[in-house]
Amino acid sequence: MTEKPAAGEPSGTNSAAGAWLEKYGFPVLLFLCISAILLALFDQFSFFYFWWDDYHNFYWTQRTSYPDLLRHLLNPASHYLRPLGMLVYKLHFDLFHLDPLPYRLTVLLLHAVNVLLVYVLLRQMSGSRYAAGFGALFFSYQVAYWHIFW
Fold this sequence. Notes:
Order of helices and strands: HHHHHHH
Number of helices: 7
Shape: elongated
Structural class: mainly alpha
Distance between the termini: 67 Å
Helix content: over 70%
């Protein structure tokens, strides 16, 4: 005669797998869902060349040196518009010229990091990994992606 497990304990030979799934199943599923959304977004926007303001940024980064951009970045009284974003544009232009793929990959990476930060913030605020997960899932979708600014 076999002994029945206590209430709340996984039964059978899959107890280790069941415990792992119970502990990590939701984060893994959430990661897979958000990854699928981000990859779908990348597929939608990977064929774009550049927007009109990108050319404006290329123009200004070509007229500004790295030391000047760093000075503007470190000076809180600087009136230079988005020095960190311009520094990223300058680095990308110097390395990749007008190839849009590295720019799009950078934007996708920044968006993925922001989704992770939204998850952490919502987890701290709500105390619920499910609420934080669904909030991060909604944030990861296209509407939020359109509002990424350098």
